[in-house]
Design a protein that fits this description.
Maltoporin, Chain A; 5-stranded mixed sheet; 6 helices; 38 strands; mainly beta; globular; single chain; about 650 residues; 22-stranded antiparallel beta barrel
Length: about 650
């Protein structure tokens, strides 16, 4: 905790002597809005190359950090919930995950500055620990890629990639702070956030950026059973220090350390004939130590990196309830890539990665720990076929000791036949490696309150996906409109199946098997328009047809229709209003194997930011304006909504 407190409040201390311009100024917001309209926003995730979003070889959304700092965003799920094709679903225990185009949250790869973080869900059940690490004050932008990217990033990227890109103030010293307080309309659920950042060049060669945040949200008790929590309580402290050195023109060395301390608490009850109410607590700590070298020359670019990520979870329960065994996951990664331009109009990138994944958990085997080495090489070729057409070809070759080599090819074509009109399409294959627990022959754990046990299976194959998409979009100075068709064919999906003493409580044994295949196809439509300089309207609609081909039925908890809307009004140079709405359509759930249809619902929020002067910005708003509570409509909704929340806050720059 001492290290974390130092990291979290370093920025606050330095800010007393720093000076900077307001980073979320009206001018910056207008520039970001214009780039969004004409498609000139710069992205890097789709090909690891900086390029405009409209010509990038993927379907991408970008959320600006300045937008996140206008409202009380507690985690990454809340940051991306208004993006096209993105839905927030349940992972159990009132926690939430991110689904892209109807795919499982386990098929979405999360990156911070292009580097994968420990996948908490790989070896722990009902967790969302990947989502709350980086606060809004430290985020430059979030890039959301809808579609597989295993060709670049390997396992887990079946549905897409979310890349959180943090701020690097290279040009001048920047100092900012943010405080937000939320008040839930009802008992419990109030929230607080306090954050600060300071960074910039120390001289022509050296620079430093540091940030820290404390955030909390109180438990929200269930109205149906006040002894249980509808939403868990959170209290988290996080921070980071990153330094860089530019020894020569085009050369950059960067060292960084990030850490967080996250406590979760909830009241719950056991299953069975004699229920016991008890308190459930998770204490999660994360850290990442990283170093990178980037060299840029006329002929190309070289990047080398190494980082070590650690995730620990300790569980506690009262009333003599048995806690989950402590878990520690450690990833050590060494990677590199070389990009060259062998001739005009061609960029060739080759790269390699070694990742050692280690897990300590008493349930995994008799020794209580296991590890695996992931090795990979990849190649990507970006061809400028004509001044108006680019073709991106690539493949990654991953080696896993359990199933050998896995190939993930990808091809994507982007054509701009006339100025502003873009036609894009491609296909790709992706995979998800089985986890250490799933593959361990010695893994055994008690599940469902003692109803059955689960054991590992060393014969599991990786889950795979083949994806296709075809789309077109038109960009002009004050509006854009696009439509995309997509299809994902999935196979070898892993499920737990009963293999012994089925139906006998306490004796039933289940194991992991590759049993399912699925097909998810659909349509996305989205656009933005700015009829006058002060007004911007953006909207999107997504249709998804999710089919479980193995059971010949619809996949559960995948709404067929969803729509998003955002209206931004720059009332004055100092005042900005935003109205946001989400519609989540009907979805199928299964109760005792019988399909049931749950009604659709909508959620609305509004926020306003007003510059009091050139140093202070007042922020206020309301989330869930109409106080939608899904639990009141049906107990079968898996996602809990906290009800209406009022918030007020202050942003500061010195």
């Amino acid at each position: 905790m001492g290290k974390l407190r130092f990291l979290a409040f370093t920025a606050l201390a330095v800010s007393q002597v720093g000076h900077a311009e307001e980073q979320d100024s009206s001018a910056q917001q207008r520039e970001e809005r214009q780039q969004s309209l004409d498609g000139s926003s710069i992205v890097v995730t789709a090909s690891q190359t900086s390029q405009e979003i409209r010509t990038a070889p993927a379907t991408i959304s970008v959320i600006a950090g300045s937008d996140l700092r206008r409202r009380p965003v507690q985690d990454l799920a809340e940051a991306v919930e208004n993006e096209p094709g993105v839905l927030i679903n349940s992972v159990g225990m009132s926690r939430r995950g991110i689904s892209i185009r109807g795919m499982s949250e386990e098929h979405v790869l999360t990156l911070v500055d292009g580097r994968r973080i420990n996948d908490a869900s790989a070896n722990m059940a009902h967790v969302d620990f990947n989502l709350g690490w980086v606060p809004g004050i430290a985020i430059d932008r979030v890039e959301v890629v809808r579609g597989p990217l295993s060709a670049l990033y390997g396992s887990e990227a079946l549905a897409g990639v979310i890349n959180v890109i943090t701020r690097r103030p290279d040009d001048r010293l920047e100092v900012s702070a943010l405080a937000l307080q939320g008040f839930r309309d009802g008992e419990g659920g109030d929230s607080s956030q306090v954050a600060a950042l300071v960074g910039g060049p120390l001289n022509e060669q050296f620079g430093l950026v540091a940030w820290g945040e404390y955030r909390r949200r109180g438990r929200t008790q269930s109205e149906e059973d006040p002894l249980q929590s509808e939403l868990e309580g959170r209290a988290a402290l996080s921070g980071s220090v990153i330094g860089w050195w530019k020894p020569a023109e085009g050369q950059r060395i960067e060292l960084g350390y990030m850490a967080s301390d996250d406590d979760r608490t909830r009241d719950t009850v056991t299953t069975g004939s004699n229920p016991v109410y008890y308190a459930y607590q998770d204490h999660i700590t994360r850290s990442r130590l990283s170093g990178t070298y980037t060299g840029t020359w006329n002929w190309g670019e070289l990047q080398l990196g190494a980082y070590r990520s650690v995730l620990e979870r300790v569980n506690e329960r009262d009333q003599e309830q048995e806690p989950t065994a402590p878990t520690k996951a450690t990833d050590i990664v060494v990677d590199g890539r070389l990009a060259v331009m062998p001739f005009a109009g061609n960029r060739l990138t080759i790269g390699a990665e070694h990742r050692n994944e280690k897990l300590r958990d008493l349930t995994i085997n008799a020794e209580g720990e296991d590890s695996v080495n992931h090795d990979a090489v990849f190649i990507q070729d970006e061809w400028e076929l004509t001044p108006d057409a680019t073709l991106t070809l690539g493949s990654r070759f991953d080696h896993h000791p359990a199933y050998g080599w896995k190939t993930s090819p990808r091809a994507y074509l982007v054509v701009e036949p006339v100025d502003g009109l873009v036609i894009r399409g491609g296909m790709g294959e992706a995979f998800k490696a089985a986890t250490l627990k799933q593959l361990s022959p010695g893994y055994i754990t008690v599940a469902a309150g003692g109803r059955f046990i689960i054991t590992g299976n060393p014969d599991l194959e990786p889950e795979t996906s083949t994806s296709y998409e075809l789309g077109t979009a038109y960009y002009s100075a004050n509006w854009n409109l696009g439509v995309t068709l997509f299809q994902n064919d999935l196979s070898n999906l892993v499920q737990t199946e009963c293999v012994e003493s089925c139906g006998v409580r306490g004796q039933e044994r289940r194991t992991y098997l590759n049993v399912d295949s699925a097909r998810i196809r659909g349509l996305e439509v989205g656009g933005e328009v700015s009829p006058v300089d002060a007004l911007t309207l953006s909207a999107s609609y997504t249709y998804v047809d999710p089919r479980d081909l193995s059971a010949d039925q619809e996949l559960a908890e995948r709404p067929n229709h969803s729509a998003k809307l955002q209206l931004g009004w720059q009332a004055t140079d100092a005042t900005l209003f935003n109205l946001r709405g989400r519609y989540i359509g009907k979805q199928t759930v299964y109760a005792s194997t019988e399909p049931l249809r749950l009604d659709g619902y909508d959620l609305w929020s509004i926020d306003v930011s007003h510059d009091l002067d050139d140093k202070l910005t007042l922020k206020a708003g309301v989330d869930n304006i109409f106080e939608k509570r899904l639990a009141e409509e049906s107990a079968l909704y898996s996602v809990a909504e906290p009800g209406r929340v009022f918030f007020v806050g202050l942003g500061m720059s010195l």
